Amino acid sequence: MAPSDARATGDQARKGVLASAVPPTGLLPPGASCIPSTGAWPSGGSSSAAGFGPSPKPWPTSRTGSLPSARPALIVHGGAGTVPDDELAARQAAVDRARDAGWSSIAEGALAAAVAAVRHMEDEPLLNAGIGACLNADGEVELDAGVMQGDGFRVGAAACLRDVRHPIDLAVAVMEDGRHVLLAAAGASRFARDHGLEMADPSVFITDRKRQELMEGADTVGAVARDAGGHLAVAVSTGGIRGKLPGRIGDSPIAGAGFYADDRFGAVCGTGQGEAYIRLGLARLMLVELQHGMDPVSVARGAVDHLGKALGALGGVIVIGREGSPHAAFNTPAMPHAIAE
Ligand code: ASP
């Protein structure tokens, strides 16, 4: 286990989608992708019809498909933002505990590990998820969560929850059910009850009203894992942003914006100004870069760079590729995170 220091400096030379997502002038030639190709496909191959560069080699899409053995890894974050000095150590300790909770489940698979880490953080009152989440403009907690497995495009998410004790459990239930990928508000609560999930009085999420009202920055929690079978998974949970309009949904339950996983390329999770992640489709862009052979460090740094340059937004990301170590990058003063591998 080792801490990672991947603070984006913004001046690293890099190439790729996230450094130049918008063509400088005019329309693209017919048939061209708006996303420039950024590198060689790891296994080579010919151009794909979709215009995303060389085609991926065939890959099993079923959970029963076996992958070559991989080195397990887990990265957990407790949100990018401004962490008051007197809270930094406590928030890092909370994230370390979540990393340990997740890592102890890694033998059960990447999904189990990522969910265990996030579920733990939903119980840490200093983090913006579950208990202790920030308050909306009406002084209430509304929670969002999402989960994705890198095998078979399996996604589940839930938003605007007030009475579901563990939003991440509901995201998993939505994914397992498989009919939809995102449920919100009253319908999501009903689905949670019907599936026997633990419900809660909305007041349990408020432990320190004043602190939760004033919470600074963005502090969504998230985890990305790779298991020994080479499967990837991502889990994310949040109270959103302080003072948000009631009913606002951020990027955290939106696959392709706040999170994404694909066993062929990698898995990513974001934290920060959710509207910016949605506008940029940032998680999906990161996957395209990984697909085109960029290394996870450059992808992570490029993502926060793009966030800042394109929209002046703040945030952070965590990334795991098909192999190698996990990485984090952020353009905020802090993003407590922890790695196990
Ligand atoms: N991305 C989250 C949202 O906009 C906020 C955060 O990361 O804390 O809902």
Structure notes:
The chain is α+β, with helices and mostly antiparallel strands and 341 residues long. It has two domains: 1-49, no CATH class; 73-340, Glutamine Phosphoribosylpyrophosphate, subunit 1, domain 1 (4-Layer Sandwich). Helix content is 27%, strand content 18%. It is built from eight helices and eleven strands. The protein has a seven-stranded mixed β-sheet with strand order 4-3-2-6-5-1-11. A four-stranded antiparallel β-sheet has the order 7-8-9-10. α1 (85-103) runs antiparallel to α2 and α7 (282-291) packs antiparallel against α8. It is globular. It starts with 72 loop residues before the first strand and ends with a strand. The model is unreliable at 1-15 and 20-64 (pLDDT under 50). Bound molecules: aspartic acid (ASP).
Helices and strands in order, then pairings?
Elements: E1 73-77, H1 85-103, H2 110-121, E2 143-149, E3 154-161, H3 167-177, E4 182-184, H4 185-194, H5 209-214, E5 221-226, E6 232-238, E7 259-262, E8 266-272, H6 274-280, H7 282-291, H8 296-311, E9 315-321, E10 327-330, E11 337-340
Helix pairs in contact: 1-2, 7-8
The structure holds aspartic acid.
Quick recap:
By secondary structure, this protein is α+β, with helices and mostly antiparallel strands.
Order of helices and strands: EHHEEHEHHEEEEHHHEEE
Alpha-carbon Rg, integer: 19 Å
State the distance separating the first and last CA atoms. Answer: 6 Å
**CATH architectural grouping of the largest domain:** 4-Layer Sandwich
